[in-house]
Each structure stands twice: as structure tokens, then as C-alpha cells.
Amino acid sequence: MITEEAFTVEPWHVRETRLDLNILAQSESVFALSNGHIGLRGNLDEGEPWGLPGTYLNSFYEVRPLPYAEAGYGYPEAGQTVVNVTNGKILRLFVGDEPFDVRYGELLSHERVLDLRAGTLTRHAHWRSPAGTQVKICSTRLVSLAHRAVAAIEYVVEALDEFVRVTVQSELVTNEDQPEISGDPRVAAVLEHPLEAVEHEQIGHGALLMHRTKASGLMMAAAMDHEVEVPGRVEVSTDARPDLARTTVICGLRPGQKLRIIKYLAYGWSSLRSRPALRDQAAAALTGARYSGWQGLLDAQRAYLDDFWDSADVEVEGDPESQQAVRFGLFHLLQASARAERRAIGAKGLTGTGYDGHAFWDTEAFVLPVLTYTAPRAAADALRWRASILDLAKERAAQLGLAGACFPWRTIRGQECSAYWPAGTAAWHVNADIAAAFERYRVVTGDDSLEKECGLAVLVETARLWLSLGHHDRHGVWHLDGVTGPDEYTAVVRDNVFTNLMAAHNLRTAAEACTRHPEAAHAMGVSTEEMAAWRHAADAVHIPYDEELGVHQQCEGFTTLAEWDFTAHTMYPLLLHAPYVRLYSAQVIKQADLVLAMQWHSHAFTPEQKARNVDYYERRTVRDSSLSACTQAGMCAEVGHLDLAHDYAYEAALIDLRDLHHNTRDGLHMASLAGAWIALVAGFGGVRDDEGVLSLNPALPDGISDLRFRLRWHGFRLTVHVTHADVTYTLRDGPGGSLTIRHAGEDLTLSTDAPCTVALQPRVPLLPPPQQPPGREPTRRRLVRPRLPVSSQLD
Amino acid sequence: MITEEAFTVEPWHVRETRLDLNILAQSESVFALSNGHIGLRGNLDEGEPWGLPGTYLNSFYEVRPLPYAEAGYGYPEAGQTVVNVTNGKILRLFVGDEPFDVRYGELLSHERVLDLRAGTLTRHAHWRSPAGTQVKICSTRLVSLAHRAVAAIEYVVEALDEFVRVTVQSELVTNEDQPEISGDPRVAAVLEHPLEAVEHEQIGHGALLMHRTKASGLMMAAAMDHEVEVPGRVEVSTDARPDLARTTVICGLRPGQKLRIIKYLAYGWSSLRSRPALRDQAAAALTGARYSGWQGLLDAQRAYLDDFWDSADVEVEGDPESQQAVRFGLFHLLQASARAERRAIGAKGLTGTGYDGHAFWDTEAFVLPVLTYTAPRAAADALRWRASILDLAKERAAQLGLAGACFPWRTIRGQECSAYWPAGTAAWHVNADIAAAFERYRVVTGDDSLEKECGLAVLVETARLWLSLGHHDRHGVWHLDGVTGPDEYTAVVRDNVFTNLMAAHNLRTAAEACTRHPEAAHAMGVSTEEMAAWRHAADAVHIPYDEELGVHQQCEGFTTLAEWDFTAHTMYPLLLHAPYVRLYSAQVIKQADLVLAMQWHSHAFTPEQKARNVDYYERRTVRDSSLSACTQAGMCAEVGHLDLAHDYAYEAALIDLRDLHHNTRDGLHMASLAGAWIALVAGFGGVRDDEGVLSLNPALPDGISDLRFRLRWHGFRLTVHVTHADVTYTLRDGPGGSLTIRHAGEDLTLSTDAPCTVALQPRVPLLPPPQQPPGREPTRRRLVRPRLPVSSQLD
């Protein structure tokens, strides 16, 4: 757990003012830098101590066997695991003849700052060596958003009150030692020494190392070069070995003098390209980095981020913690996706090895909705990645005896890597989530070129999957059996409402897309009859509803299952303390499921149904998944429990800055960080798009005085400024000059000429705020509900 | 597959007239000898070739880790695997200087005979060595039913047309090489070299080897001694090493002269006893064997079997294959159980390593019903084993967050070893099956001393399990969710009819037993309120029924699931060709489930319901489990499909003699072999006991002219002789001299004074014979439906 003292609350920075080795692994995740292609955990420059040393390349993975004591047909035999690649972050410092190590000598001050506008991680250390010599170290690290293959570090050492001889070893290190794996099944397996040396050479004031994975046969190159500035004599030498390259800089510094090293890093990998081609690719990137120079890289980084924030920023007045957290989340979302370029966006981005580095439905369901509104090019690239694995998904469907395509529940490269089918293969909804992400991209951007390019095939093949998965009963009602919805505490059921609504949407969307692209559809063998069958199934889909209780059933029969005994089970997450067989058969919910269905298919539920359903499911949801709080925020806001929604929004946003799920050490929770935006924008902004129209219905909780957020819609850039009294829509620019949106259910036409302000009605909830299971109330916002001082209590 | 030529059809023998190395592994299972404590596969005396070398001691196992790619709470971490112990069967023969090996030289004749009355395996071989020397070898092997720790072999070599120097090496061999494991998940893991040497010593004309398992820490001793008879000079020498003891006999034989060796074997193991104690135990058993002598062992064996057959024999006129097969099955059932003495009866007995040597519900559900009527002492011992692991079952229930006791789905020692919970932990019915076996023992024997001794505690703790598993819905109906019934193609469901009826029976039986033993119940904390809660749940249990179709639902909603596409899936067993998630959500049934419920709870269904249910479920049952055919036989007979029932009875009976499931190599199918008896006695005899009364209602298929079977009931011995015209009940002896049974629904009082003959009415089925899924018709009885010769077809 990270206490609230760990990082100061500032609008644009995450600042750690003293080094706490107990949360080193967590801070490495928080301070991770990435551009979606290269990921560097926030490890200390000098390499140790570490919580988890980590350097990652998107989709660079190793294959490992998946063992089963009792195997079954269709179980994947091989898994894919993210690999800790050659570490280029290391700069070891010797002060005199003593190594700079924060565990020795005296750390007089230590500060690390993640700057969300500069896109850099800066560290200031003031250290007294065991021999009493003081130095100041300042390093600044960036992973370039503008130059995909490049990272760089500025490393400055300053002598203070005496002359000191300074030695810096700047390294590339392959096959670093890793910590032992935890017993928690959610933590990724750690692979030991996964890389085989291919080539090593010295280049300029640096070196290049090439390695290959043993089983997956991927080749990578890492290269470094250096600029050194120092008054007086300096010697720079480099040697390279198979798993280690080292550039050594040695000089003497008088008090006030500084040694400044710029370390340029270039990374590349390929499954296809030859050794010389890959070697030259890394060398070229390195040359490019030197050509830009340190300041050039800094400037390009800031320009990239200025552009991003201009379209994406969310301003939260009155709640500085959420303000910081939502920007922190957006920053990491951008880092995970900016230059992923047709590679997967993992659940942890490139910030750690959690979940083996796999991508799940999280991407399409939580990350892409945010990117589609804020960085649509990154969203399109992520969707192109999905389309690129369509053939693998078709093979998987065929293996399962199904038509169409079945996308993997968890994967890096595209093959199914889920070893537990009730919460993997049976979670078919991932296919509809992907289809919906394509459709959302089209609806929000107004651009159907991506659909034409690759989305149509995905829509058609996923529709075919659904048709072969479902069946019409003897009364013509269409059912989906053997289905696991988002809630992983209720698995392999009939007619999960979320899945059924998503499948119906997938079927209808595919039919509509085929109508838009008749020739391409025809070429895929789609007939009028097939489209009719899709629409017929979608229209006949069963949505279970409990008439007696007046609530929807998360799945058939759900509301008649045994109630979970929350008083007998007080250890969370429940999955580590109770067997699946008991969880599955009780009314206990891991994460928003029906509630998510109501957010995404808002028009399929009446306001009263929403209010009653939220009330029912709140009492049974334990939020053992990090994907839940943001959705609960969104729907609690809609039904009028605004303060509760604020609590959930806080929980989603602060998940990693406060380590609320106790596993930030393994990497950041991209979906929950995206959820912070969703909670604010879809929750308090009331943004919905499920009817193809940009629809808003804002309402703020007491703890937020002003909320300002930006959206892109059909080429328009829109700013929404919500207060308790009114909302102001500012159409900044866009095609044609006017845009019709829906505000509180009524059409409203906006013009680029002038902002439009509308008064807000207070939101009155139908029901009182619901209770959560005992002990599972949302993490309260500390600033909003401070403990009363003792004297007040006595009054 | 074993063709019908492999074994001749004889009433009391299983004879193989030529050695077919292609079915060597299968014949090793068929010719396995055991007494329930020691098991010897039918390996050739000379040790090789083999299909699977096998020597087993009941409950002597090794622990192995159970791996999971994604583990979950409550998954067992360690499995138990039967160990191939020290092999005492080996007698290697050298003819001149050439080893006797059936793969070399010329095998002029070779015959093996399993004698079901003598309890021996005899082998005759006539061999010409590569050098042209002819010998005859005759060996007879037995595992003593009368002396639990003893096996013996008579080995005779005869010189034929020339003088020959003969050398025999009689051995004890530990840690034999094993074949590689198959990819089929049903085949047991084979452990390599599982035994560590503890002690070896020479004793008499033999030796003793002691070993210990590495992980489970069990110690075993194997000892051998020899008697040698030969005209002329003979030298006998023995040496012993840690993993090998060898007694060498060398002599010369003139034509017509014979060397005769009697090899006595003794085995023992313990988890507790000291090395000297165990050593002396084996030595004492060996001394006892020599004291009995070979003829004494043969005589005792036959006497034991005479007694068994007198109570157990079934005579089938008109169907010699089934006649042979049912006796073969009863013989192996006796072998698996006779001297198991409070150890588990594994699904394969001690005939192979299939299913890791584990015991399942098969024991209580199929094996014990037969033993209870034919060898009740063995049944009582098996039940005492279950009672002995009650504490482990209570620990397991507590681990799962449940009350009472949860018995393992598969185990050797008592700990849960099932690594796939949907077909393991969720198959809660095993607990009710065990309870029912206790109750059946009480009902059939009329003896409640076993209940008092240990059954009551089992009944109470299993009832407590059920009450904590189930729940009353808001209308008071009692449901069981998260349940897998016998059918493993439909898992983790609501209200499986079989499970619900069994649970209700368990609850009621426990309440009644507590009423019979009030003080013992009170000591277990059973209150009047608890008993009332049991009865209340049992009375409120939900039995799903499809009103529209007029059939019961195997589980809630079953009849509304998608129909399985049998034309698209033609490879069996389906579990090797389709994923569970698809099987579970379709109307495809692995094995009798609702149909078994109707057999065991006959009174809970009307005749019309039975007919309609059989008709419905026959069409959807693929019999991928060997536990199915016998039950289908029983219920098809009851509803009047007598020829179809005969086909199923044949399939159950011939499973191993014809290798119908292609895995007889891994051991025999004890439950199916028991099922042969069940199919004849419960099927054509119509025996039921679910209302506490011995009830019969016989009817024969066309292919059987006479059926005669014997039962024990309340101390009576009853013979039932069924023809197409009538049935004759002969009460041979018993307490009081008269017994009231129920014949065709009417009470009938029998007397030991005279047989009672009753005319039979022809059984008229309500519906025409049902179809099975395409290609899944029962294996037809070849003798009944011979192919017409070509000439006839031309007529």
C-alpha cells in the first residue's frame, strides 16, 4: 500500500520527495516511461536496489509451456510471456572508489518527479559517501514519443565541497537476475535468462548487443551511445561482451564542477528481419537520436504532449487528488499506446510483468474508449492489431468447432494463452467488445475508412462466431449458453445480459457494416440470408428479468442463487480464499457486469430499471477486479448517487498512486487508469454514444466544483465545462461549423461561433444510496471526508 | 481392440490360444491376478516383452505435484499415484545358452488360461530355440485369496527330444523401466524409479528387498523363496542387491525330464511399522506360504472361490459370451475387493495404472451394490475404508467453506487428487453415493452394526455438507447450484436431478439413522432442529421437469439447451475432440445420469415418465464413459426395450474382453464389470431395493433363454431362475425360514421349504425402441446377429 504521503498532490507532476525502499517496486511502476514500443520501469539509474528490474519491448515475448494436471481438448499448450530485455537504463557511479548505492552512506535528499507535460522522469539525489564525500546527482530520463526506437538519459554529477574522482559505467545488461515469483496466480511467471547472445559490437562511444529468445525465436537489438561534457581531462572507453556492454567515463571534478553524460538508447526487434538488417536499424535509430540531440528530444517530447493534452485534458476543480490521478492515468494511457503501432496494448502497458504482459478485453473495453475520444490514431492502430490476428482467431474458432473468429482472452502475439477456460474461452464477450470498439471508432470519428480497411472482416467473423455459439429455443428465443460475462465470480452460465446485449450489437453492427460495404461483404461470402439470420438472432435475444424483484438478472437465474455470506468471508480478494465452485453458485459479483451493460447499452434500460439494478447489484459487488470501480462510478452517477460515484471515481483513479489493489509492483492497471477518465467523463459528464449520437447529461458531486473535459467527435474538438449550475459546450473547431449533440435527452446544436451554456437540473435519485457488502465500501476520498479532530468530537 | 478371436468363449475360463503381441498390454490386464492387497498384471514370466509391467500393493502410492498454469483456491497441490512395486513374477529361462524370449526362435504353441474357479493363471508354451532345441514350459500363478500377503508360481520346464542344460533365474526386480505416458489425459502418469532401497538380504533359497517411496514415505518389503524339484544334479544360488535379488537354478534335463520350481512370494507395506517389523512380517508370510505348500495354496484358493460362486454366480443360457463375461467380471470384482480390508477399491482394481490407481464414486455406485448382494463382508470393509477417511473429508469441507464432510472425487489415501474441479469437486454426488452405499448395506444385509460402528458419522457429516451446499429460494424450494452430476458433459449446473434425489435421500437417511442411534447422534451434536432441517430440505428439493415435452430435465434448463450436432462431430470420445465449454452447453450426454437416477430412485418416477425419459435421453447419450451401458441396460429393460437392454448388457460385460473403450491396456474397468451383473440382475431380474424391500420384476430378451442368479438378503440366500414363461424363487436358507419380497409390485412370501414359481407377463413397451446418436448404437452381440453368409443374401 502506498500511503498518501508517498507522492505530493500536484496538478501536473507526480513527485516523490524521499526514497522509501518498501515501496520501491510500486514506485518503479508509477515512474515507468514508455512510448508503447519501448518500456522502461522506473528503476534507479545505478541498477540496484530494485523491486523488479524491467525493460520491455512491445510484443517481444518468450513462449513457455502451460502445464495441466488434467488437460482438456482445446487447452492452449504454450503461453507467451513478456521478457525483460537488455537493460540500457544503467549508469553506475563511483565516487572516489565507492559505489553510489542508496543503501550505503547517507542520502541527504532524494526526489523523483514524473512530469506529465514534459514526459520525463527526473531524479535529484544528494549523497554523502561512507567516506564522507558529497555529490549531487541529477538524471532525467525519457522514452521518446516522437522517435519510436529511442530513449535517452541525461546524467549529471556535481562535486560539492571537495575534489572528487568520478567514474560512471554506463551499461547495457542482458539477462538480469529477477525476483522470485509470488504465489498469487495473477502475478506473471518470471522467466530466468531468456535471451541468447547473437552479436555484440562496439560503436562510437557505445555498443550494440543483439539477442534472441530461445523458444519464440525473436531477435532484438539494443544500442547505446554517449555524449560526455566535463571541464578538464576525461577518459571514455567501451567494451562489449555477449551479455554486457560498458562505457566507462572517468574524470576529476572540483567543487561545483559537473560531469554531464547524455546516454542515447535505441531498441529494435523483429521476427523476420535478418541480423544485419536489425543491427543497422538500431544503429540508424541511435544516429537519429544523436542528430536530434538531448534538447531536441526534450522539445519533441513536450510538443507531442502539448498536442495530446490539448485534446485530452480533464480539469477537476475541488478535488486535487483526482485531478492529479486522471492526468497520471491519461499520461500512462498515452505511453502505453502512442507508438504501439499495430501491436497489442497490454493490461499493464509496458510497466511490469503482471498478467505475463498479456492484452485482454481491457484494451477494447476501457482503454480504447478513452483513446477514441482523445487520441484516435492510437485507437485505430490498436484496432489494426486486432485485425492483424484475425486469421489466428479464425483458427481458434475452428479448433473449438465454431464458425467465424474467436479472439484470445489473453495474448501477446495473438494465440490464446488462457489456461483456465471458464474465465477464458467462455468469456466470449471479448469478441463483441472488439467489434464494439471498431464500431465506436466509426461512430465517434465519423470515419469509416478503418471499417473498410479491416474492421468489416472482424465484424463479419465475430458475427459468425455468435451465430454458431447461440441457438433458438423451441419458442424462437435466442440463447447463449456456456458463457462467462465480465463478472468472473459467475461463470459458464446461460444468457449473461452483458454478453447477450453485446452479441446482439455485434450481429446488428456486422449486418449494417455489410450494407455499407456490399462488395467487400459479398467477397467474404456474406449473403442476404446470413445477414437476416444475424438480425433475427439479435432481435430474439433473451434478456433475463426477475419480474418479482423488478431487476434484471445478470444471467438466467442469477437472482435466485444463494446469497453469499459476507460475514463468513471477510478476506479479499475472495478468489484467494474461496473456491470457484462456491463463488460461481452464489450472488457475489467480482466486478460490474450487468452495470456495465447498462452503461454501454444505456437505451436498452429504463431509468427506473437502471436505478433498481444499480441498487440490487451494488449490494453484491465486491470489486475484486480493478475494472469495476469506474463502471460503478458511471452508473451511480447516472442514477443520482453522485457522492458514491465520486468515491468510485476516486478509487479507479488512485488505484496505482495509492496501490489500492496491492499489486502495483507488477505494473500499472491501464484499464482502471482509463476508468478514471471514464468515471469523470461518462459518469459526471454523462457521455454516451450507444445510439450513434454524442449524448451528454452532466451532474457533479458535491466534492467537485468544476469539471472541464475535451472530446473529439467527427473531426470536431469539443470542450465541456460543467459546474453545479450549468454546462458550457465550446465547439473549438471542426468540419462545417455546427454539430448536433444530445443534451439531457434533447437535441442541441452547437456552433464553432460561440459557446453554448445550458442550465442543469439537480439530479434526484429514485432510491437512497445503496449499501455495499460489509467492508467493501469504496475507498473514500480522504480530502473530502477528513477525520474530525478529537476536540470536535467532544463538542 | 481385441477381436472376438482373441479369447475363446467358455463358461469358466478365459483362454488365449496364441500369443498376439499387439494386444499384450490388454491381455496383461485381462490376466491380472489380485486379492485386493497384491496385484500382479499378467506379464510373461520371463519379464519381456511387456505392454506394461505391473506389480501393485493396495494404497501403496507416491505423491506427485499437480501443476496448474492458472491455479485457484482449493486446488489440490499434490496427487497420489499407484507405484509399480518390486516385481516378483520374473522367472527367466535359459535353454542351453539362449534366453527364452517369445520374439526369438519359434513359438510352436502358446496358451494362457485364466481359470475363474481355480483362481489361477496357467501358461503353456512349446518353444524351439534359435539353436533348434525344443522345450515345454508350464507355469501356474496365483495370488492367494486365503493368505493376503502371499502369491506363488509353479514353473515347470520339460526337455523334449534332446538333452538340454536349463538355467532359471528367479528374480525380485525393483524400479523396472516403464513405457512412456500417452497423451490421453485419462492415462495415469507413470513415475520413473519411484523406490529407494532400504534393505536387501538373502533368506533361505531366496531373498528379501525393502524399499521406500521418496515423497510419500511408505515402506514395502518383497520376499521370495523357492522349492526346486528335478531329477539329477541341480545347483541353486542366490544373490541380493539393492534393486535386484536373483535365485539361479541350473540343471540338465534329458528328454521327458522336468524341472519344477515353486516360487513363493510375500509382500507387505506400512506407513508406520519399523523396518525390522516389516521385514519380519514379509518373512512370516513367506514361511506361511511354504507351510501351506503349493497344493495347499491351490486348494485354499479353490475353496474360497467355491464359496464365492455359491453366492454370486449368474448363469446365462443362450448367450455364452455374456455368460463368460459376467463371470469374468465377478471374478475380477472379487479379486479387487476380497482382501482389500479397509483400503480403497480403485477404478481399475490392482490391474493397471489407469486413473493413477485412484478410487472414484465407481466403488460405491457400481462395485459395492454387487458386493453387497454377493460378498457383503468385502462391501463392509470397503465402507470402513470410507469411514476411515472421514476426518480428511471434514478438513476438505472446511477448506471449501462448507459444513460436514466432503469426500474426494478421486484418491488413493483419502486426500482430494482431482485437478479439474468442474468434474471433481463439483461432483458433490460422490458424498451421497457413499451415504447410499452405507444405507444399501444396511437394507440388504438387514444388519445395522456397520451403521453403528462407522456409518452414522458418515451419514451425519454428509447430510451436513448437503445442507450447507443447498439453499431455499424465496418460495421455499430447495436448490443445489454449482453441481456436476454423473454426466461429465454437463457440468456446474443447477438442480441436477440425480444429485438432488441423492442429496434428499442422504438427508432423510441421516435423519432416520440418527433416530435409530439417538445417543450416538447426540454425541455428534445432532439436534432435533438439525434433523428437521435435513428433512425439510429433502422434502422441498427441486426436481426439474419440462411440462411441454413431458420429460424430466437432467438439470434445470437442460431440455432447452442447444441440440448437439452429431453429424459434425463423429470422433469419439468427444472430450478428445471438442472443448468442454461446447459440450457443457449442449444436449449431449456422456453417461447415464437422469437414467441412473430412475434406476436408483425407481419409486420417484411413474412408469410413463420412465418410458418418456429413457426415450429422450437415449437419443442424446454417447456413452463415452464406461459407466453408462449397464445403467442404460437396466432402464431399457424396465421400460420394455429388452433387446436393446441386452445389447447394452453385452457392451458393459465385454468392455475388457473386447477392449471396447480401447484402454484395457491401462487396467480393467471394475465399474463396468460390476455393471454386467447389474445389467443382468437389476435389468432382466428387475431387482430394486430403493424402498427397503427386495423387489423383483423379471423379463428376458429374446437372446437369453434362461437366467439364474443368486442373492443374499437379510441373511437369506436366494436363487432366482428366470425363463421367458416364469420365474422361480428358491429361498435356500436363512433366518426364520420365510421372506417377503415384492414381485412385479405385489408382495410375495417365500419359504425355505419349497421354491415358488410365478408366471411372467410379456413386457409391453409404451414407446418404440429409441434411436441412439448416429454411430453410437450399442456394440451388438455378435452371436445374436451374425452376418448372413453371401449365399443366403443371394436367395
TrEMBL record, chains A, B:
GO annotation, biological process: carbohydrate metabolic process
Keywords, comma-separated and alphabetical: Glycosidase, Hydrolase
Chain residue ranges for the region called Disordered: 762-795
Pfam family, one: Glyco_hydro_65m
Glycoside hydrolase family 65 central catalytic domain ranges (all copies): 327-677
Alphabetized GO MF terms: carbohydrate binding; glycosyltransferase activity; hydrolase activity, hydrolyzing O-glycosyl compounds
Binding site for substrate: 361-362, 590-591
Domain Glycoside hydrolase family 65 C-terminal: 688-750
Transmembrane region(s): none
Active-site residues, Swiss-Prot/TrEMBL: 488 (proton donor)
Limits of the Glycoside hydrolase family 65 N-terminal domain: 16-270
InterPro entries hit by this protein: 6-hairpin_glycosidase_sf, 6hp_glycosidase-like_sf, Gal_mutarotase_sf_dom, GH65_N, Glyco_hydro_65_C, Glyco_hydro_65_M, Glyco_hydro_65_N, Malt_Pase/Glycosyl_Hdrlase
Biased composition annotated in UniProt, kind: Low complexity: 786-795
Keyword Hydrolase: yes
Compositional bias segments (type: Pro residues): 765-776
UniProt entry tagged with the keyword Repeat: no
Family statement drawn from the similarity comment of this UniProt entry: Belongs to the glycosyl hydrolase 65 family.
Protein name, entry field: Putative glycosyl hydrolase
